[in-house]
Amino acid sequence: MPDQTRESRSPTTKVAVVVGAAVVVVAAMLLVVLALGVGSGTGSESSDTPVERLEVTIEDGTVTPNARRVEVTEGTRIELTVTSDEEDALHVHGYDEEVEVQPGETATLSFIADRAGRFEIETHHTEQLVYQLIVKP
Ligand SMILES: [Cu+2]
Questions:
Q1: Is the same domain home to 128 and 85?
Q2: What is the whole-number distance in angstroms between the Cα of residue 94 and the centre of ligand 1?
Q3: Could you tell me if 120 and 134 are in contact, meaning their C-beta atoms sit under 8 angstroms apart?
Q4: Exposed end of the chain (fewer CB within 10 Å): N or C?
Q5: Is the domain of 104 the same as that of 57?
Q6: Sign of the CA dihedral with 64 first, then 70, 74, and 76 last
Q7: Is 22 part of any domain?
Q8: Are 22 and 14 spatial neighbours (Cβ–Cβ below 8 Å)?
Q9: Range of the domain at 33
Q10: How far is the CA of 43 from the centre of ligand 1 (A)?
Q11: Interval between CA 121 and ligand 1 midpoint (Å)
């Protein structure tokens, strides 16, 4: 009889069943999270993404480097670091990425060079051509 079966189950058994079910649910959720985590790691931007670090220094009105040619392949992450003793702005033409820097501070700008071509990186206040970024397909 159903009633007898239910009564024969001790409260401890019921708790054990509930806990067991909860453990299964949590384990399933963990698997999903792990699967998603691994999936995103192999996405468009993984740890394999090449990185080109470019430094810019503005000191006493002099911008370094000056029109330096840099070649990267499409998909490279560009990480620009600007150190300046005056207020200025660094502009990546074509990608239209811009970062402002305050006197005595360091500013960074990071973007993926996902379009081939030749792009000028210049300062806007001191108006100097800093880099010529060549992005190869
Ligand atoms: Cu500009």
A1: yes
A2: 9
A3: no
A4: N
A5: yes
A6: negative
A7: yes
A8: no
A9: 2-41
A10: 32
A11: 7
CA of 49 to the centre of ligand 1 (A): 27
Per-residue tokens: 4:
């007898």
Q: How far is the CA of 50 from the centre of ligand 1 (A)?
A: 25
Number of domains in the chain: 2
Strand ranges across the sheet with 62-64: 62-64, 51-59, 76-84, 105-113
Q: Are residues 120 and 55 part of one domain?
A: yes
Model confidence pLDDT, tens digit, residues 112-125: 999 999 999 999 99
The model's pLDDT over 58-76, given as tens digits with 9 standing for 90+, comes to 999 999 999 999 999 999 9
99 CA → ligand 1 middle, Å:
11
User: How far does residue 80's CA lie from ligand 1's centre (Å)?
Assistant: 15
- DSSP-derived letter for residue 18 is H
From ligand 1's centre to the CA of 93, what distance in Å?
6
